[in-house]
Amino acid sequence: xxxxxxxxxxxxxxSVPQSFxxxxxxxxxxxxxxxxxxxxxxxxxxxxxxxxxxTMPNLARFAERAxxxxxxxxxxxxxxxxxxxxxxxxxxxxxxAVNMQGTVVDRFRQKTIFNLLGQKxxxxxxxxxxxxxxxxxxxxxxxxxxxxxxxxxxxxxxxxSERLFEKDYTPAIHAENLFSRGGDxxxxxxxxxxxFRLWYRHERxxxxxxxxxxPHGIPSSHNLVFLLEDAIDWTKRQLQEMPQPFMAxxxxxxxxxPYAPRRDFIGRFDDGWNPKPKPxxxxxxxxxxxxxxxxxxxxxxxxxxxxxxxxxxxxxxxEKRVLDNTYLFVTSDHGELFERxxxxxxxxxxxxxxxxxxxxxxxxxxxxxxxxxxxxxCVDILPTLAQIAxxxxxxxxxxxxxxxxxxxxxxxxxxxxxxxxxxxAKLGPLKKRTVSxxxxxxxxxxxxxxxxxxxxxxxxxxxxxxxxxxxxxRAKKGVAAELRALLREHLVTVGGGLExxxxxx
Length: 505
Description:
Largest sheet: 8 strands, mixed
Number of domains: 2
Radius of gyration: 22 Å
CATH architecture of the largest domain: 3-Layer(aba) Sandwich
CATH class of the largest domain: Alpha Beta
Shape: globular
CATH topology of the largest domain: Alkaline Phosphatase, subunit A
Distance between the termini: 59 Å
Helix content: 25-40%
Strand content: 15-25%
Structural class: alpha/beta
Low-confidence stretches: 1-27, 181-192
């Protein structure tokens, strides 16, 4: 019986939330904070930021009453590092959540936006479809008033291990993965595995027949099957029921792959357009260009589907006047790549499509649009929330308050970093990693520990060459040397067992 599902498949539905803790919270004494994260949403594929396809008209509508950040960057190029940086206000070399399904080091367990706002008695809610983000939320659950279980908003959930070891989500899920599939994928039951697979295949086929609105399959994360519509409806209820002031961090998986939009979005961008191909990178995966173009088109369709659901939530918030006393953040944990022979974001590359993400913030009652073009980072969100709540910037924080949100001016001379180190040990030196540094329009990328591409620097002028087609590290040796020295100096300052650049080339 251990191989049988504990959650059945039913008709299209909306899950009923558990009631919250009945403790007393102050109502209306401080502004609410709502952070919406749409996973793997690249700024490069959003019409608001100049993309050719009109992928997000509802986000553009929201932008007319929000502050739009045009050069905002993730702390890493996949969920774990990007989410941990957003939640802690620190870069991966500090919080060390650098591995797949990784978590932060113990000293950062309580250095989060949840702990911070708990000091001002905010009601704190967390949710994610993504099991990598859930690993982090489980690590921080001591500072959450309510962590909604992913399965409550799923049509199918076949995980069993974390039900048996509910206080050890990450090791339980990871162990289940290792035992059941040899480590090549997440999920699946520990017991009677092949019988379980037959059942699961049958159930997935049944879902496809039941939900003909999703010809590419119903949205899923590993073996979790869900509808974004359910999550949006659940969010609407929380906005009406939560004690105030609240801080809600809601991390939705779409438009992360597999790209599975509703039928009405499929074919929307069959326009014959494809971007000009870019040269292969030495660390390419050699994905053919025709496949990259197809994936890009499917991704754009999925983004349009996500935008429609965001628009439905946005209309609800305006109708119920939620935004009169709420800071609304819309952003992502990382982007997606469809170039240089690379698809997705599990890559050592840190080009703009995979680390430049949207950030839009509406302040309570905001009626006009503001645009910030200075570079910003996801590590800036935590110190911004601190100022909103009337707290000092924490000493561990590596970010700065976001311009215009808390009466600070944009700075063009900031250094913005992103880090990729999935193949390095969590507690040891980051011997195999990529670090990017953006400063005053230039972007330096340093690759370390890759076979055939070890201790190599690339330099791009993002102002003159936003597509990052020309490595100018030799043409502008002075700029390259200055940024290399700045990067080395910063790595020495942060320490933490980082493997340092050697000679470089």
